[in-house]
């Protein structure tokens, strides 16, 4: 199972283009704050709320390792390596947890879910807090069960597992603060297990519970208290970990858009925001108490959706996720999800055999549902619910497998046992909940129609892709239009047709076909259309915004997707160079002087290339020019490759100079000029102690072309 899990996770990571260096979402915020911590030792909170710090310190430690290895770009891959390691460790750990709580078949089924269920295959690729949170929460539960078994066996070192459970839960809470509530669930678990263990008078039970609880609480508090003290010293407020709970609840209670609430918070000091949000919540609920639950039922029903079908057939875009490539795994994953959800309802309503652990499972399930009912539904809020439903679903399915095995060995006894169970109130409660779950799923959406429409959409798209590959553009356009007619809200389908119109030079049609719904990839195509139509200001704005916010390498995407207009001279860094280059940092501008206007440029990183489609074939007299400046004192040896010819240019630091190279004879008559560049790099923060710029840079390039 571990090898299968490893193969699936590596496969998914290789498919995913997401990169936090280019993201304006949470992963980008985490990356930038971890970068500042790694390079300057300064921890900064998020610009509009205080978030948990645990994963930031972990990311910063990995960045330190990457910098020591000389390549900050390794950070994302190293983080994913650790995440994959944790994800794979969960497989045997989950097996042992379910085996100890229930039986070996439950362990095998639970391990199988952890191996192949698609949300858990995708999870390690995310540069978010969730991979660490999910791992530490599961490990905390496993350690509690290990303590239970050691305690009931009379082992002397049973306390060792409680200390570990406290430390792990403390770090779990520092990655996502809802883990704080698990302290209450865990104490209830300890109370039940101690009561079951040795009996005796109530006072003796209370004394044992107090001593045992301290073994859990002291290590837990040893991680939480220092951060709480830091928050108090920094902001003068008692903030245990973060301010996300009150602020998210306040935002969800507003009538206006969330962005409006964020703009209000932006005008306040960080320490004033939580008291303000809490006061606003009290005022809102005093005037309209029912506003708290106005979305509770719609949000609750959304929890039980078919997870992958929603992503593939309902959402307006894949948002750069490789959803289509993982369709088979995802659709199988939905069957797994629906099966273990339904089965878990029989397990949690059966006669308890796993002791106090059910209180932890029910506590987390209730908290997860309450959170999304009051705020909004996000998959990351549902991770604990998924964990415990998968665990109890595995228990029910494993019990069913054991019954079938008994049916083969001793059919009369197995049938008698089954009839006895069917007459119990336990089965009645499970059947009622399972029926309610099925009703929620089948009434939430018309899934047969959605899947049928989605498959038709995909058939039309496949026909369009084949026709386009064959050069039959009329048939391709007709197939894309059928796809749009089938699913008019699917932005990615409109995007593909707009790309075809862009390639055919029909810019007006391409512009008209794009939806008003903006996505980052859509804005790349929208920018290319604006550039082709001559609206250079809009094109530069859209390209620049997409490059820093898209969550993926837009330079690489531009080379793969766009066929920009021929030219003989390219200005770098002005927002209009996407589609012509790869391997450069974001555009920058030199300040203007009395004698020159502002000058844009880009830093070349370790390796890059410029691809210039030419209006006329290369001639014998053509000369390549590169306007460049070195990055550090002295000379930077820049290797320039034209065709099979490689030349090293000593690029001097400081002054901008134009460097010229003759076009090799082998390229004469070519309609495209590819210039490959590579040079040794430096990291600014290692050169300048006042800098926290950890990019790998080599030389600055402002212009390239022919003369």
Protein architecture, described:
There is one protein chain. The chain is an alpha+beta fold and 707 residues long. The chain is 61% helix and 10% strand. It has 28 helices and ten strands. It has helices spanning 2-15, 26-40, 54-68, 74-101, 104-116, 118-122, 130-152, 158-175, 182-198, 202-235, 244-253, 258-266, 270-287, 296-303, 307-314, 327-348, 357-374, 383-409, 411-422, 425-444, 447-469, 473-486, 491-504, 507-513, 520-533, 536-549, 554-561, 684-687, and strands spanning 569-571, 581-584, 588-590, 599-613, 623-630, 635-642, 645-652, 657-662, 672-678, 699-706. Strands 1, 2, 3, 4, 5, 6, 7, 8, 9 and 10 form a ten-stranded antiparallel beta sheet that branches. Helix 9 packs antiparallel against helix 17 (357-374), helix 22 packs antiparallel against helix 23 (491-504) and helix 23 packs antiparallel against helix 24 (507-513). The longest helix has 34 residues, at 202-235. The mean pLDDT is 91.
Q: How do you describe this structure in short?
A:
The protein has 707 residues and is an alpha+beta fold. The protein is 61% helix and 10% strand. Strands 1, 2, 3, 4, 5, 6, 7, 8, 9 and 10 form a ten-stranded antiparallel sheet that branches.
């Amino acid at each position: 199972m571990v090898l299968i899990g490893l193969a699936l996770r590596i496969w998914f990571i290789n498919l995913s283009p997401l990169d936090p260096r280019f993201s304006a979402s949470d992963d980008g915020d985490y990356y930038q704050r971890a970068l500042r911590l790694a390079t300057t030792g300064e921890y900064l909170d998020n610009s509009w709320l205080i978030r948990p710090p645990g994963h930031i310190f972990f990311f910063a430690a990995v960045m330190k390792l990457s910098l020591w290895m000389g390549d900050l770009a390794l950070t994302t891959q190293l983080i994913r390596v650790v995440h994959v390691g944790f994800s794979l460790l969960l497989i045997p750990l989950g097996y042992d947890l379910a085996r100890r709580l229930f039986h070996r078949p439950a362990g095998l089924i639970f391990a199988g879910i952890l191996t192949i269920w698609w949300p858990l295959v995708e999870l390690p690729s995310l540069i978010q807090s969730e991979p660490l949170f999910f791992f530490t929460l599961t490990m905390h539960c496993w350690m509690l069960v290990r303590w239970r078994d050691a305690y009931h066996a009379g082992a002397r070192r049973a306390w060792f597992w409680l200390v570990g459970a406290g430390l792990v839960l403390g770090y779990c809470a520092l990655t996502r603060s809802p883990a704080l509530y698990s302290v209450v669930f865990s104490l209830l678990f300890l109370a039940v297990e101690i009561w079951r263990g040795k009996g005796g008078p109530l006072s003796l039970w209370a004394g044992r519970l107090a001593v045992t609880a301290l073994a859990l609480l002291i290590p837990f508090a040893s991680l939480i208290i220092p951060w709480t003290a830091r928050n108090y010293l920094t902001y003068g407020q008692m903030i245990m970990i973060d301010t996300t709970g009150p602020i998210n609840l306040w935002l969800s209670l507003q009538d206006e858009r969330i962005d409006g609430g964020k703009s209000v918070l932006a005008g306040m000091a960080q320490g004033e925001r939580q008291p303000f949000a809490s006061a606003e919540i009290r005022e809102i609920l005093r005037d309209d108490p029912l506003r708290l639950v106005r979305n509770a039922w719609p949000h609750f029903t959304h929890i039980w959706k078919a997870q992958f079908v929603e992503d593939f057939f309902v959402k307006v875009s894949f948002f750069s996720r490789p959803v289509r490539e993982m369709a088979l795994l995802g659709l199988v994953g939905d069957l797994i999800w629906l099966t273990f959800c339904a089965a878990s309802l029989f397990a949690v309503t059966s006669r308890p055999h796993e002791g106090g652990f059910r209180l932890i499972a029910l506590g987390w399930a209730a908290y997860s549902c309450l959170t999304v009912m009051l705020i909004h539904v996000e998959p990351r809020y549902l991770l604990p619910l998924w964990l415990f439903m998968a665990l109890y679903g595995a228990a029910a399915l494993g019990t069913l497998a054991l019954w079938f095995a008994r049916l083969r060995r001793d059919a009369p006894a197995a049938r008698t046992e089954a009839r006895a169970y069917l007459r119990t109130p336990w089965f009645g409660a499970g059947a009622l909940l399972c029926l309610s779950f099925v009703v929620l799923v089948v009434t939430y959406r018309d899934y047969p129609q959605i899947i049928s429409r989605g498959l038709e959409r995909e058939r039309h798209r496949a026909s369009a892709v084949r026709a386009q590959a064959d050069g039959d553009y009329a048939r391709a356009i007709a197939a894309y239009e059928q796809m749009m007619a089938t699913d008019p809200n699917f932005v990615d389908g409109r995007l593909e047709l707009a790309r075809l119109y862009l390639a055919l030079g029909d810019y007006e049609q391409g512009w008209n076909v794009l939806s008003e719904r903006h996505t980052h990839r859509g804005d790349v195509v929208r920018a290319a259309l604006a550039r082709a139509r001559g609206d250079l200001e809009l094109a530069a704005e859209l390209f620049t915004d997409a490059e820093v916010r898209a969550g993926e390498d837009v330079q690489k995407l531009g080379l793969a997707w766009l066929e920009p207009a021929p030219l003989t001279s390219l200005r770098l860094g002005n927002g209009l160079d996407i589609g012509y280059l790869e391997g450069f940092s974001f555009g920058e501008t030199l300040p203007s002087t009395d004698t020159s206007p502002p000058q844009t440029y880009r830093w070349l990183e370790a390796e890059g290339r410029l691809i210039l489609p030419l209006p006329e074939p290369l001639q014998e007299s053509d000369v390549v020019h590169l306007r460049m400046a070195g990055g550090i004192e002295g000379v930077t040896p820049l290797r320039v490759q034209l065709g099979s010819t490689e030349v090293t240019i000593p690029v001097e630091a400081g002054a901008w100079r134009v460097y010229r190279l003759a076009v090799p004879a082998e390229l004469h008559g070519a309609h495209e000029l590819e210039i490959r560049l590579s040079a040794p790099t430096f990291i600014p923060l290692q050169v300048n102690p006042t800098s926290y710029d950890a990019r790998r840079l080599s030389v600055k390039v402002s212009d390239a072309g022919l003369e």
